[in-house]
Design the sequence.
């Protein structure tokens, strides 16, 4: 019998928004490999190798490093739910949407949450964090490394010491940094961190890499109450991920894990340092091109996120019309603003496979075309030419 429903034939897009990013055909091919059982020896090998590669990408020796079955928010919830017991104090640093989400998750886990807030687009200083941890003595301080909602990059190097001095744990959201920017779990003294597969790891959305260091594991081992989420309870999930205690917990998304395995292989083949340099080079070229077109960044110099460029929409330009044309005419997806930045900024992602010279040049040319017909005067070719100069001076 014929079905009235057509097969899945999505349009080909260039994903330069806040995520997902472009996916390598190698990752898609891996996801199409035959499904095996979740306790099949082949899959157990894939799990072990994925853990080992994740440790390299997180730059950690942490044994408890796995991919949680769920998107980045599941990673956030895993970290918070396992570290927090009802009545615990937690500081949530909020300078964008995702810090706010972390506070919400912590409250749902019964934490007494102190919100340390900064306007969207700004970052927190080590001094203000130190003052807050001294006052609150939190069990956990949660902070977002790369705020995708604002395009701000939070410096982390100095924070762990002040949190540890006050007896707390440092929890970091590295959803939009892992695999695109240095994330030094061990060197920076980060106790727990989570990410998502669909940003700089360039794998479709669906898994959340997480890592817990020795202090965090001790806290989990000494809990007085059960983790309030059955699905995300690391005291049970970790048995599934360990050769010593392997036991069914839930049916892992087998083919998603194939995809992550291949995405991690691609990252390690490229090398972390060359990958970070690539992300920076493309960010600087895009920035030079946008500047030549009179477009400014929404975040102050020095705190701009290379993987997510939040720029002010020029006066008089219709946000949705330009994004619509970019998508329809050029196949390019970029993001609009979130929260107080809605309608004021565009968010241009340069993550993983999408962070390429080709995409930077194509985007600048396409944007020039869209702006020209929106009545903004841009010197023809100025953006592409400035980006081209930036690439030449970087080589
Ligand atoms: N944290 C940050 C910084 C993010 O950018 C996102 C998603 O964009 C999340 C958390 C939530 O991840 P997900 O949408 O995969 O659940």
Sequence:
């Amino acid at each position: 019998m014929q079905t009235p429903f057509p097969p899945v034939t999505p349009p080909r897009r260039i994903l330069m928004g806040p995520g997902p990013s472009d996916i390598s055909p190698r990752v898609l091919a891996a996801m199409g490999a035959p499904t095996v059982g979740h306790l099949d020896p082949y899959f157990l090998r894939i799990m072990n190798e994925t853990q080992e590669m994740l440790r390299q990408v997180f730059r950690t020796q942490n044994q408890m490093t796995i991919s949680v079955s769920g998107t980045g928010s599941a990673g956030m919830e895993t970290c918070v739910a396992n570290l927090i017991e009802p009545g615990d104090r937690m500081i949530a640093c909020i300078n964008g949407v995702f810090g706010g989400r972390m506070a919400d998750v912590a409250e749902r886990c019964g934490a007494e949450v102190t919100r340390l807030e900064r306007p969207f687009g700004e970052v927190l200083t080590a001094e203000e964090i130190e003052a807050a941890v001294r006052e609150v003595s939190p069990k956990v301080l949660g902070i977002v490394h790369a705020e995708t909602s604002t395009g701000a990059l939070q410096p982390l190097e100095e924070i762990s010491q002040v949190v540890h001095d006050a007896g707390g744990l440092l929890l970091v959201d590295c959803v939009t940094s892992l695999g695109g920017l240095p994330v030094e779990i061990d060197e920076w003294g980060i106790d727990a961190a989570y990410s998502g597969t669909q940003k700089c790891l360039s794998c479709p959305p669906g898994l959340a890499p997480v890592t817990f260091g020795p202090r965090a594991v001790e806290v989990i081992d000494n809990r007085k109450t059960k983790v309030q989420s059955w699905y995300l309870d690391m005291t049970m999930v970790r048995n599934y991920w360990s050769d010593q205690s392997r036991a069914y917990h839930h049916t892992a998304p087998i083919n998603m894990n194939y995809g992550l395995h291949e995405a991690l292989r691609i990252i390690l083949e490229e090398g972390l340092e060359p990958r970070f340099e690539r992300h920076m080079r493309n960010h600087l070229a895009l920035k030079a091109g946008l500047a030549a077109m009179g477009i400014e960044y929404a975040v102050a110099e020095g705190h701009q996120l290379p993987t997510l460029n939040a720029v002010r929409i020029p006066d008089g330009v219709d946000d949705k019309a330009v994004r619509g044309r970019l998508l329809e005419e050029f196949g390019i997806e970029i993001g609009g603003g979130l929260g107080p930045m809605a309608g004021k900024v565009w968010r241009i992602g340069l993550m993983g496979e999408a962070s390429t010279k080709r995409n930077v040049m194509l985007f600048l040319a396409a944007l020039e075309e869209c702006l020209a017909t929106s009545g903004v005067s841009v010197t023809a070719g100025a953006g592409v030419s400035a980006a081209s100069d930036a690439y030449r001076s970087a080589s």
